[in-house]
Amino acid sequence: MPAPTVTVRVEDAKGSHRIAIGAGLGVAGAAITLLLPFALLWLAVYNPGGFFELNPDLVRDISLLVLAGAILFLLSLFLYRRGFAVLRGVDRRFTVASVLCLIGSLGFLLILVAVVVILGSTNSLVSCIHGQPSHALSCLRSGQPLGAYTGLAGFWLGWLGGVGLVLGLPRRAVAFRAACCTAPPRCTPFCSSRWSVRSSG
After folding, report:
1. 176 pLDDT exceeds 90?
2. Neighbouring residues of 54: CB distance < 8 A, sequence distance ≥ 6
3. Which pTM does this prediction carry?
């Protein structure tokens, strides 16, 4: 008796490919948007006299890093949404994840707008942060309220996009596992007894 094989649908392959690229862009965006700016700001504020100095140039560079990271996050959510949209054609349960990723994309567009607005007031921000390093967010809110509140709205919309990923990615993993376990022994390491019984029944 020939071993059963997995039939790979075009939608599954295309959706998985887009999701994989989106994941790579998301990791790069997280490093550029979160890790690098906070590391530079920490070094400038709590290690004065070192290589990094808190001045308008550093604030501009950090803003540009956030801008680049937000663009990567935007592209990441766009690809996630496209991937979920393709998978939605064979499984309607991906609809919510696709819609939330679209909302998250709008959030990162707002963050891009906020960064552009903030870039125009770097001098006042630096003066405020020099006096109160631990109140950087308060300085941003008082010095550039439009950018601060636009960025805050974008953050929460982006958070909804993250919820879409939390809903969509595990569902995709479950679908892969269920399909893969119909073709042992190649996919046996991914299978539990529950899946094996289900697939054999």
Report:
1. no
2. 41, 44, 45, 48, 126, 129, 130
3. 0.72
